[in-house]
Amino acid sequence: MASPASSDSDQVLVEANGSTRTLILNRPKQLNALSSAMVTGLLKCFTSYEEENTVKLLIVKGNGRAFCAGGDVAEVAQSINNDSWKYGADFFRTEFLLNYIIATYSKPQVSLLTGIVMGGGAGVSIHGRFRVATENTVFAMPETALGLFPDIGASYFLSRLPGFYGEYVGLTGARLDGAEMLACGLATHFVPLNRMSLLEESLKRVDASDPFAICGIIDQFSKQPSLKGSSSLNRMDIINRCFSKGTVEEIISTLEQEAPSVSDKLVTAAIQSLRKASPTSLKISLASIREGRLQTVGECLRRE
């Protein structure tokens, strides 16, 4: 293993296989939550490999049972309490720059989304060209419960989900499985867990940057999963009716009006999530997603 990141940290490991580089998020005990060293290391890798003609494909994956559970907000909060706001400002600036570079990258990136994918973990994967979910993938943007809002360019990709599904996912922090990620467009492929290692080995043997060639390889291992009967995507009529409203108060009121007539667990869970979340975060999140529909990914990241 040799890596532009290796001098900074063993929290991002790099495997070189021919013209493929595999970036491994390596904080398994912290569910690969992104530290300052990790975002700096990833940024160095992406900027370096952009210029290297010998590198044609990037694979990103997590070590352990999570892809990445998000940014290490505990580390940021602790630094503010102990020192000043500067560490947090530097962290978010570097993270958002990384997100933008991934979103505009010239070479294909394949993210192998096994386990938890939340917050900042979505930022280093969803903006890339290929996102491979599996049966143990759990996706969420839980920021409103933390007093934050879906950032890392989430106002760009959430606003482009079907109907008002982005508002539902972003405001409630609802958890999606791999089949739901594929169905709504957050994932590009679904590969069964027992075939992921075979996919990875095939990708490591690729000597091309052609997205069609990469897609063809992933397609060989992919399947079309069925949505569970309880999936929120089977409730799009209710989601669109409620989450299309202009204000958070109207969204909650409409959900509460729906509750007695539909006896739907989704409605009850959505109301509970919204009632527990930070009211300020909910308002910022709704405005952010709505603005994101009319903005580029760069404009979304700059505003966030």
Automatic annotation (TrEMBL):
<dbReference type="Pfam" id="PF16113">
    <property type="entry name" value="ECH_2"/>
</dbReference>
<dbReference type="GO" id="GO:0003860">
    <property type="term" value="F:3-hydroxyisobutyryl-CoA hydrolase activity"/>
</dbReference>
<feature type="domain" description="Enoyl-CoA hydratase/isomerase">
    <location>
        <begin position="21"/>
        <end position="304"/>
    </location>
</feature>
<dbReference type="InterPro" id="IPR032259">
    <property type="entry name" value="HIBYL-CoA-H"/>
</dbReference>
<comment type="similarity">
    <text>Belongs to the enoyl-CoA hydratase/isomerase family.</text>
</comment>
<dbReference type="InterPro" id="IPR045004">
    <property type="entry name" value="ECH_dom"/>
</dbReference>
<protein>
    <recommendedName>
        <fullName>3-hydroxyisobutyryl-CoA hydrolase</fullName>
        <ecNumber>3.1.2.4</ecNumber>
    </recommendedName>
</protein>
<dbReference type="GO" id="GO:0006574">
    <property type="term" value="P:L-valine catabolic process"/>
</dbReference>
<comment type="function">
    <text>Hydrolyzes 3-hydroxyisobutyryl-CoA (HIBYL-CoA), a saline catabolite. Has high activity toward isobutyryl-CoA. Could be an isobutyryl-CoA dehydrogenase that functions in valine catabolism.</text>
</comment>
<keyword id="KW-0378">Hydrolase</keyword>
<comment type="pathway">
    <text>Amino-acid degradation; L-valine degradation.</text>
</comment>
<dbReference type="InterPro" id="IPR029045">
    <property type="entry name" value="ClpP/crotonase-like_dom_sf"/>
</dbReference>
